[in-house]
Design a protein that fits this description.
Number of helices: 18
Largest sheet: 8 strands, mixed
CATH architecture of the largest domain: Alpha-Beta Horseshoe
Strand content: 15-25%
Number of strands: 17
Distance between the termini: 50 Å
CATH topology of the largest domain: pyruvate-formate lyase- activating enzyme
Radius of gyration: 23 Å
Structural class: alpha/beta
Strand order of the largest sheet: 4-5-8-9-10-12-13-17
Length: 443
């Protein structure tokens, strides 16, 4: 991939010897994306560019790259960063048990039950004491290549600040008033669209050893969302809620706490099927286990190392039978040729497994990402197809589909869900009031 990019730039420099670095950069980006998407030879494509002036060449390439949106979008909507793909940054997609080579810990966690449990579970790991995570990061420079090795490193810390916080909604979107319980940082799954790969600056998995300190009613300040009867708290923003639960047993304390506080709704968000501990404890009406779901094609192409859709739905059924509410999150909804038929099939599968009376909510959100994440995805997943579609730069500096396309996708999915059960709560994630209104989400 590195050599292909250099090849494209070299061809353009030969064809347009009087163009400066920035102009060649933008044209290289467009040629790269078009030829990758269409599977064509860059040399013959570049030779076929008819225009000799920069404006004409760029305009013709933009029209080819954004055929559906070029005429209806402002010209600053087309995000054309330099191409910086390194083969060394490619994600490792080999499946394997979580078995860290190195376990870093601070002295203050040595007497905790989680530390003792991990010593027993991973006797062959090298245990290394550190002064603090902050000090460790000063001496260990982070890179994408090291991020790819994060499953090899586990950090055990005492969390002192981020117990609960409001969900960080982007500007100009409808907020569902969700509060987040931070049960860890870092995920072993390899989802091509994951925001953590552009956000995380630690080459490892971080687990707090003082979960009981989190579970204090005075620390929880959730507020009601317009669609929900109870204040909502949930885990799963910076790590999967359950993927490490067989190691941490966090669900023991969390379920017990929220069973004693029935005036608050708690949600475990997950893609995993690591539910043995939940089934053993048994659920309550105010505790929901929710799964991120997608089409089988998108799971196979983009949600690497995760359980298949059917495995997730079987786990959801078991949790419903054990007394938990269940939820589903179509997030991200990804546009591709057969998206409508495939998402409708996923909805059919959900209701084949789960009676609607057990479903607490279903959220729907389209693919979106901070603009800078595009380059990270390219490096880590060079064969991805999600970036081949027409994602435009919006006011919040995120790349999104057009409002028209997002609305079309939401309406199709919501219509299919309501066809099965009109009483199921469906809400949109990270969407504007305008789009909510078009989809009937705000009354």
């Amino acid at each position: 991939m590195d050599s292909n990019i250099s090849y494209i730039k070299s061809l353009l420099e030969n064809k347009f010897p009087f163009f400066g670095i920035n102009k060649i950069r933008e044209l290289s980006r467009l040629v790269f994306e078009i030829t990758k998407r269409d599977g064509i030879d860059p040399k013959s494509f570049i030779e076929g560019i008819e225009f000799s002036d920069y404006r004409g060449a760029k305009t013709s390439l933009l029209k080819l790259r954004y055929p559906s949106t070029y005429s209806i979008s402002s010209k600053d909507s087309f995000y054309l960063p330099d191409i910086d793909i390194k083969n060394s940054d490619k994600a490792c997609l080999e499946q394997g048990e979580f078995n860290p080579e190195n376990i870093y810990y601070t002295r203050e966690v040595e007497n905790t039950s989680l530390y003792e449990r991990i010593k027993t579970l991973f006797p062959s790991s090298a245990f290394r004491e550190i002064l603090s995570l902050k000090e460790f990061l000063k001496d260990n420079k982070f890179s994408l290549e090291k991020y790819n090795q994060r499953r090899e490193n586990l950090f055990l810390v005492k969390e002192k600040f981020d117990f609960f916080k409001a969900c960080p909604c982007t500007k100009n979107v409808v907020c569902c008033n969700y509060s987040i319980l931070n049960t860890g940082y870092g995920c072993p799954y390899e989802c091509s669209y994951c925001f953590l790969q552009g956000y995380q600056n630690v080459s490892g998995i971080i687990l707090p050893c003082n979960i009981k300190d989190f579970l204090d009613v005075d620390k929880i300040k959730p507020s009601h969302g317009r669609l929900f009867d109870l204040p909502r708290v949930g885990s799963g923003e910076f790590t999967d809620s359950l993927v490490f639960d067989d190691i941490t047993l966090f669900s023991d304390d969390i379920v017990k706490f929220f069973k004693e506080n029935r005036n608050i709704s708690f949600e475990f968000k997950t893609k995993s099927v690591n539910i043995a501990n939940l089934l053993k404890i048994g659920g309550a009406d105010n505790i929901t286990v929710s799964w991120s779901v997608n089409t089988e094609k998108m799971i196979e192409e983009n949600e690497h190392l995760t359980p298949k859709l059917e495995e997730r739905l079987k786990a959801a059924k078991k949790c419903a039978e054990a007394g938990y509410g269940v939820g589903f999150h179509f997030d991200p909804v990804i546009f591709y040729e057969n998206w409508r038929k495939d998402y409708e099939k996923t909805i059919e599968n959900i209701f084949d497994f789960i009676d609607g009376k057990y479903i607490k909510w279903i959220s729907v959100g389209s693919l979106r990402m901070p603009a800078e994440l595009k380059k990270v995805i390219e490096s880590r997943f060079p064969d991805n197809k999600i970036l081949d579609e027409e994602l435009l730069l919006c006011d919040d500096n995120k790349l999104r589909y057009t409002k028209r396309l997002r609305t079309e996708m939401y309406e199709a999915i919501i219509h299919k869900i309501k066809k099965y059960d009109k009483n199921v709560v469906v809400y949109l994630c990270m969407e504007t009031a305008e789009v909510w209104n078009k989809c009937g989400g705000i009354e």
